[in-house]
């Protein structure tokens, strides 16, 4: 299938958020998968609590239901730290307070505000030398929205970069250091309305100021950083980064630099030129644009290459393509994956390799020597926390080969003890609970979300600023858990439960 036909096929399977009406965008942003794009077991359904909150709030102004400003309170959003490297680096995700999330979605998707946002984005997207491939998309098939987004990246960034090797001889890679944590909230208004207008008009008549105020309400009045972990905040990040594209384009035009193409997926840049000097000039100008926005490029990840095709592939994927990917023996197959994980911890190719391994053992009638297999999988998870969901699925299948329930529970306890040595293991506990629940539903986990699953009464969001009793009732965090799906859980996680995208296209 040619690239043109493939691109057309993928376009038919997805729809850009910016092509939707305000009402359609509101519905899309209130989906569970849009509210939280972190991988969770299927019995977590955040759309349920958003629905209850929506029934109470509707399109009313939230200020009529509060006794003080949310920004006067700490812990309004719920933080969920996920470990990045098995050591001391972590990525802070947040479950945004549902009332503030709904309020911001309501404001953004009003007819006037939504048209203003779409008009501004059309300016960003009219730049002939820039291709932004990270606008949120909705799947038109049974595939998840996240899967559609990944395939959009694959077609636009990886395949697009390979195609550009026909026209350009040199490519530079750059990304922004801690992008979401560094975005200056006032820059959202600059992005949507222009810096001059935003600086002279600080009223709530501008949607940029409304977004700014909501983010400060979520984050104890902070103006540095936006919450990470939702499609809504991905859209907000795109506002600022689209503005950066516009600024970069204008500055390069003034410098008479015209022969280049920039592929951008959120804060990841690929700059295609025909000589290194042009590339360095563009990179210098990009650095200046970022400084004006309070952002900075990650110098450790800024690289250049004359091999455009090879550099279009991620290093871990290229290494995996060159490696022996499997073995007839199950344990040796897993050890091949383990070796790749040592060289490329937390890599996307490692997740894909594990997912394929999970599909293999899901079809196997028997698994021999389950304990060594579990030990290998746990070691992979320990070094690559990104793999927790798929490792949990693999472990669930191997556990089914253990003879007794007592032995399975003993192994689960061992796994928990081992992985608990990592800092910030809430996400791990969520998935460990998924595979232990069918055997013992009352195993104690420290993570608050796990406690909700077993009926615990725990606070997730700080509601001290809310005066409405109806809204407080709607915000009962136990609504997050779908009891029906929880009761239907099987001990073995099926591939469909963790399958996010077509692995062969990664």
* Quantity of strands, as a count: 9
Q: Let me know the average pLDDT.
A: 92
- The number of helical runs is 25
Low-confidence runs of at least 5 consecutive residues? 1-10, 501-506
Task: Let me know the largest β-sheet.
Answer: 5 strands, mixed
Category from helices, strands and their pairing = alpha+beta
| Major sheet strand order | 4-7-8-6-9
Question: Mind explaining what this structure looks like?
Answer:
There is one protein chain. With about 500 residues, this protein is α+β, with helices and mostly antiparallel strands. Helices cover about 55% and strands about 10% of the residues. The strands form 3 sheets. Strands 4-7-8-6-9 form a 5-stranded mixed sheet, sandwiched between helices. It has a two-stranded antiparallel sheet with strand order 1-5. A two-stranded antiparallel sheet has the order 2-3.
Secondary structure elements and their pairing?
Layout lengths: L2 H10 L1 E3 L5 H8 L2 H4 L10 H12 L20 E6 L6 E6 L2 H11 L2 H15 L4 E3 L4 E3 L5 H20 L5 E6 L3 H4 L3 H8 L1 H6 L6 H12 L12 H24 L6 E5 L2 E6 L2 H17 L10 E3 L2 H4 L3 H8 L7 H14 L4 H16 L6 H14 L4 H12 L5 H15 L6 H11 L11 H6 L15 H6 L8 H5 L7 H4 L8
Parallel strand pairs: 4-7
Antiparallel strand pairs: 1-5, 2-3, 6-8, 6-9, 7-8
